[in-house]
Amino acid sequence: MKEWLSTTLEALNLVETMEQPDGFTRLGYSEEETASMSVFRDVAETLGLSVRRDQAGNLFARWGGKTDHVVMTGSHLDTVENGGGYDGAAGVLCSLGAVKALKERGFKPHNPIEVVCFASEESARFGVSTLGSKSVAGILDKSVENVRDRHGVSIKDAVESTGLDWSSIEEAERTKDEILSFIELHIEQGTQIEDHGAQFGIVRGVACPIRLKVKVEGMAGHTGTTPMGKRKDALVALAPLITFVSQEAEKLSNQSQKPLVATVSTMNVKPNVMNVVPGQAEAGIDIRSVDDALKRSMADKIIEKCRSLENEFNVTINIETLVDNPSILLDEELTARVKRAGESLGYKTFEMDSGAGHDVMNMAVKWPSALVFIPCEKGISHHPKEYSSLEDLHAGVEILAEVLQQEAGE
Amino acid sequence: MKEWLSTTLEALNLVETMEQPDGFTRLGYSEEETASMSVFRDVAETLGLSVRRDQAGNLFARWGGKTDHVVMTGSHLDTVENGGGYDGAAGVLCSLGAVKALKERGFKPHNPIEVVCFASEESARFGVSTLGSKSVAGILDKSVENVRDRHGVSIKDAVESTGLDWSSIEEAERTKDEILSFIELHIEQGTQIEDHGAQFGIVRGVACPIRLKVKVEGMAGHTGTTPMGKRKDALVALAPLITFVSQEAEKLSNQSQKPLVATVSTMNVKPNVMNVVPGQAEAGIDIRSVDDALKRSMADKIIEKCRSLENEFNVTINIETLVDNPSILLDEELTARVKRAGESLGYKTFEMDSGAGHDVMNMAVKWPSALVFIPCEKGISHHPKEYSSLEDLHAGVEILAEVLQQEAGE
Questions:
Q1: Which residues contact B221 (CB under 8 A, 6 or more apart)?
Q2: Bond prior to A375 in cis (omega within 30° of 0)
């Protein structure tokens, strides 16, 4: 199994070795994502599954069953730019591996099992995440069609460039009845499992972000001729906010029961040339906690700080809320069954929250859903050095196989 | 004359009104700069001058003379992105206006007068400034040929796209003997003339910059899953430097005889997406003063601060010196004659330094050179709101005409 996992992981990542200094770039609805999905199709068909592509570009590899009530597992194959080869891919790989393991032990599912490969999970290309799983859950907001990537390509055009028809994307929705449960496996992208001496994580809730765009309007001027005392430098006005967000998040998180994180993750300065004092500076801020009130409190402190920076630096600051989603709680019963399944195999589990969004949060809106984390080295993710060991992937396969066997029945 | 100035200013700027919300974008060696230069040629020929283009793309409009020793005046027509319509254009316009005024009063120059329009003065496109005047002075470093703009076009290719041959650009150099003196008129891009109740500025020296590129290497990670205490956020490490540069420059400037300015003018964050902690952050810093030792001292303080930020935030900071040019002193005798010429017309002058670089700094390396500033409203420059009044432009014409008449002789 481990050799199969290693070879299949490389194949899904379209490489011959996972050592890739520039990492992996498979943006949503790109040729690279399509190529990786095509490998998924080959692997699934080799395992004897029948593969179907839906109207949103998701792939479903189905195995047997005597009912119409699917037990579903899977994740995604797209990545951020120069990301890692495990975020998403590990879940798809372990789901396929679990089917392979069950087949090898002669298991015949009573309810059909489907391994899903969701399209375009990452927000890296369009700033909008989980397009595929939103479509399946019937919660895709079609008004995103004109959102564009940095090359000017709209979501609609990107979707259609893969041979789909945007006007029928809503037909990808699955009914409540069709799916019994959904279990996603994902790399942790943190170090809590390891820090607590466990082998895998059971997730209770997913912390959805508040995202703010802070835009500072100062006054451009020549760097050589605008005396220091006469400037309205937008970047100088914004700089203390970067420090504030980092320090305040750490403080709030330490004071609270649930962790909180906040990040100034994007930054754009205009005109961004050497001899002009920045006239505009724009920052994107990402705030997360399973505790929605704590998240709100952090956002409020940022807004308050902006008001004080406006006065101090004589600039105008506009704050736009891009995203404000309440956190998602996963199904308690299914989560408990997954935990017991893992423990029955001898693995030590750690109950935790997810700071990152995943496809499971959309599935959880409609179906009982659970999320299993496997460790990744040093918590490094969205980075070429992202890594999970073959041992941890193999444990993931065993846990998923155990859960699928229970949920599908024989 | 004022109507001619107004109409010609619009023509050189390729517009029918100077009210342009997005300002003017004529980058060096672009189609827009070429179009503006072609208007210059038409205007100069209409005034009866004969126009020649040299191997660097500079235009020279020559008027009469019984010797081979040219009195030269002029500036440039390229702009920064979304810049103003007076930076450069005012000097070209007033030089043409001075010739027109001298012609109208029946003056016949003994030494030929040339109005020059230098190519690609701004560093906005390639990060390298004054390509045209460097070529004329014979101080162009040809190794810049592969420096590229943000679309990947090299300086060599840009020059050649205007019909020139890069291999012969050095032939644009003029001999010491050919040019008697050079006088540039430019907008002040500051408010010192107005602050001192004067009508024009006489520049003693040009403050050339030290430019640093500061590159912070931290560690990317998922914004939702990397706890605050475990981050190496490159942007958080860089933010205090922005504040430091601004505060320290103001402090040093207040303590010193000569003013100093320092600016974090460019900023690039990687990967610059919402859900990734910044792994890299890069800042461009521009430091200027006519006092070279003061400039050096500011640069040293920045380097020292970076070392302390490295330790505090557990990141690596690399500092590269992009530019370190000593300041240029202009010709004392010519400057004194220009000052007297202006005063003889009843204008009050203010002696000052230039915080910005101009073509004159290259000409000054080889020929006696002077720089005249006219006021611009609120000191706003490199911005769509850049503005000099017709009265100030007209004063510039009168001063230049007086100086050219004296220098060329009859």
A1: A189, A379, A380, A381, A382, A383, B231, B276, B277, B279
A2: no
Q: Please tell me whether residue B112 adopts helix, strand or coil conformation.
A: coil
The nearest CA of chain B is from the CA of A239 a distance in Å of: 5
| A residues 100-129 closer than 8 Å to B (CB) | 122-124, 127, 129
- Which of A123, A125, A191, A222 should one mutate to test binding to chain B, selecting the residue with the greatest count of B CBs within 10 A? A222
3-state helix, strand, coil in chain A (%, to 5): 40, 25, 35
Residues 6+ apart with CB under 8 A from A325: A208, A209, A210
* Spans of all domains in chain B: 2-207+327-408, 210-324
* Bond preceding residue A326 cis, omega within 30 of 0: no
Confidence grade of residue A63 (pLDDT, cut at 50, 70, 90): very high
Residue B222: per-residue pLDDT: 87
DSSP A331: P
Size of interface A-B (CB pairs under 8 A): 240
pLDDT in tens, A288-328: 998 999 999 999 999 999 999 999 999 999 999 988 988 99
Intervals of chain B under pLDDT 70:
none
How many whole angstroms separate alpha carbon A121 and alpha carbon A28?
A: 7
Looking at CA atoms only, how far is residue B216 from chain A in angstroms? 14
| pLDDT above 90 for A40 | yes
Instruction: Give A235-256 pLDDT, tens digit per residue.
Output: 999 999 999 999 999 999 999 9
**CATH architecture, domain defined by A210-324:** 2-Layer Sandwich (3.30)
Q: CB within 8 A of A157, min separation 6: which ones? A: none
Interface ipTM > 0.95: no
Q: What are phi and psi of B192, to 5 degrees?
A: -65, -40
pTM for the whole thing? 0.76
Which backbone phi and psi does B270 adopt, to 5 degrees? Answer: -125, 140
Give the C-alpha separation, B401 to B271, whole Å. Answer: 55
pLDDT at position A258 is: 87
- Touching check for B294 and chain A: CB below 8 Å? no
Q: How far apart are CA B295 and CA B324, in angstroms?
A: 9
If we measure between CA atoms, which residue out of A63, A44, A61 comes closest to residue A52?
A61
Percent of chain A with pLDDT over 90: 90
Number of other residues whose CB lies within 10 A of the CB of residue A332 = 11
Topology classification of domain A2-207+327-408: Aminopeptidase (3.40.630)
Smallest Cβ–Cβ distance between B223 and the set A239, A240, A263 belongs to A263
Q: H or E stretch including A203?
A: strand A200-206
Question: Average pLDDT of chain A?
Answer: 96
Q: Which of A44-48, A199-203, B274-278 has the lowest mean pLDDT?
A: B274-278
Strands, E, within A258-336: which ranges? 261-270, 276-277, 280-288, 316-324, 328-329
Residues 373..392 of A with a Cβ closer than 8 Å to B: which? Answer: 379-383
| B325 shares contact with chain A (CB less than 8 Å) | no
Which chain A residues are within 8 Å of B262, Cβ to Cβ?
Answer: 228
Q: What confidence score (pLDDT) does residue A225 get?
A: 85
Reported as a pLDDT band with limits 50, 70 and 90, residue A143 is very high
Residue A321: the pLDDT is 94
